Amino acid sequence: xxxxxxxxxxxxxxxxxxxxxxxxxxxxxxxxxxxxxxxxxxxxxxxxxxxxxxxxxxxxxxxxxxxxxxxxxxxxxxxxxxxxxxxxxxxxxxxxxxxxxxxxxxxxxxxxxxxxxxxxxxxxxxxxxxxxxxxxxxxxxxxxxxxxxxxxxxxxxxxxxxxxxxxxxxxxxxxxxxxxxxxxxxxxxxxxxxxxxxxxxxxxxxxxxxxxxxxxxxxxxxxxxxxxxxxxxxxxxxxxxxxxxxxxxxxxxxxxxxxxxxxxxxxxxxxxxxxxxxxxxxxxxxxxxxxxxxxxxxxxxxxxxxxxxxxxxxxxxxxxxxxxxxxxxxxxxxxxxxxxxxxxxxxxxxxxxxxxxxxxxxxxxxxxxxxxxxxxxxxxxxxxxxxxxxxxxxxxxxxxxxxxxxxxxx
Length: 410
Hints:
The chain is α/β, with parallel strands linked by helices.
């Protein structure tokens, strides 16, 4: 099978979120099919020419061809301002405007018209306009989150009036774009049954398939667990959901934990920590803010409990799967583990109020046998359900379904 794979970001280095999913799916697809990758370069993840060359070398191990394109909105603050102004006067979502590219459109059209591909994979809603004139070529669209739902959740926790207004308007635009674009694809891919239901309710009659997020069960493996009092959360603070989660935890939950476990420590791991977070760490020596780290595994193995105090999100959280694969006991909000095939009390503990979250965390800190049981069950589930080799085969099955939908079985 020959696959034209369109990505909103170069899926390298595979550190978290969409990068991790994209890299591992391309790797798995490359073992069974021919992949031609077209991707936008984000300067914040590939800031130098040497970083871009390294990414090309890595991805060419799995892809027959790799082509990069500049993302105009990332060129400067002036370009970002222009995109925001254009979005304010447009019915299109900001992401669609940010990904406008004549070069990407031309190359995509040439590839689709070449007759050499069996399917085109569009890896986010914002790229859907590039494939609307694809003729009879089967196409699938990935919804990493139901974007309109995610934006509504962000608006619900935003305290700044202008930002809240912007987010609510974006949510409405995204909902309209989901209704417009999704029916044009042969299969709409979602990452969880929860998202599948939300999308199907919003756009009835779609052909959908769940291809969950996964984890590299060899890279993220259990290690010797010290009897520590440390808690950890990992996630880039340049993402609103992670920043909100950490500040919510420290402001609402952490004081309750410290009152019961005075020697507890909290590690906040992720790039671009906000000033509010570093200010808390400056006042409290038991709060450690690392910034970006190349390999989170040694820090995770220092901790006794992995906390997931997310209040905003969609899809499924790869950080949770990474922690599960490492055999970590987890305490999570319902949103934090939403869409995963986990059973509260068996694979993790779910707590949604600050008092419940603090109590559950303290109980685990004081109960090593319970931590071990949860961690072992979480690891077993990661192996059985969420390894990338299993998920890669599921995606190939979706491509075959898209071809059948077009009457192109071969």
